[in-house]
């Protein structure tokens, strides 16, 4: 389908955005999680270095998100999206030849930057098209690309584990990413924008009595989810567990229907009440690692509950925040991305500090448990709608 002919069906635009998220989030970012224990086993990285690489990636993600907003507001969104999406696939390919930790750290930083740009601009571009064509209710389907990316990256790592070693483990993801990135970038760069709805900035304070607890709770969500989503396979390796199915596979499977489930709960119970439940589920997920006497069962519970909830926290928070501030789209996006990104940056740093002080990797999850409880409690102070 030619995107310049204003497609009547939302299927292909949604597919293009979902594929972009598969490339940058599945093959670019989260494939690193199941690769961590293999890299440690191969002698490529230590656990401390793995945490440092994750930190560099999150620094890049936060930088890229801010760069995306800068580009979008200046009319350069499509160009930035094209360069970042294709660049992300090229960076994944470049990691095959990165034998030194320093060069790999640079590439993980650049991977994060390109990921941040795409993760903001691809959904924003397609959402604009959906709004112009009265199909905004379908926008959540784009994020199925995250779940499909998680599942695909896990399958790739499992299928090639015995055949590849060291940096060669990046090769399958790089090979698949390139054609997907090229098609998605071409389609999105030519997608007709239509006539999007106009909004005005009402210039009210972004941080007020209504939104401040929501923003602080979302910070907790970022810290609460990032530790298991980065180190869950490494914990299994640290405990000498050979799980079947693997914890990361369960994360991927649970993430796919989660968007539909949490969207339904938000519609029935209200977004605030759904978020309270969501944070409780995430708290149970992290607590399972810390308190379950059966290690394998704890890992499985953490994987299923976290995989089935983290995407819900993202879009429920965005939707509720726009209810509280309906005319502050760019500023609101910047605030949420910054808070979530900073929290993701703090998580691996805390893990690295804990490991260097002699703590086990699993013990550092206590920070995530506290963050989830923090978020759940703060949500009780968030109103369901803006009051004047």
The number of strands is 0
Query: Could you say what the CATH topology of the largest domain is called?
Result: Growth Hormone, Chain: A
Structural class: mainly alpha
Percentage of residues in strands: under 5%
For the sheet with most strands, the description reads: none
Counted by DSSP, the helix tally is 14
CATH architecture of the largest domain: Up-down Bundle
Low-confidence stretches: 195-201
Set out the fold topology.
Elements: H1 11-30, H2 32-42, H3 47-73, H4 77-94, H5 101-132, H6 144-160, H7 171-190, H8 211-238, H9 247-269, H10 271-291, H11 295-307, H12 310-324, H13 329-356, H14 366-378
Helix pairs in contact: 1-4, 1-5, 1-6, 1-7, 2-8, 3-4, 3-5, 3-13, 4-5, 4-7, 6-9, 8-10, 8-11, 8-12, 8-13, 8-14, 9-10, 9-11, 9-12, 10-11, 10-12, 10-14
Summarize this structure as a short list of keywords or feature phrases.
single chain, 388 residues, mainly alpha, Growth Hormone, Chain: A, 74% helix, MFS family transporter, transmembrane
Q: Can you describe this structure?
A:
The protein has two domains: 7-195, Up-down Bundle (Growth Hormone, Chain: A), CATH 1.20.1250.20; 204-388, Growth Hormone, Chain: A (Up-down Bundle). It is globular and about 50 Å long. α2 packs parallel to α8 (211-238) and α8 (211-238) packs antiparallel against α11. The longest helix has 32 residues, at 101-132. With 388 residues, it is mostly helical. The protein has 14 helices and no strands. Helices cover 74% and strands 0% of the residues. Keywords: Membrane, Transmembrane, Transmembrane helix. It is a multi-pass membrane protein. It comes from Thalassolituus oleivorans MIL-1. GO terms for molecular function: transmembrane transporter activity. It holds the Pfam family MFS_4.
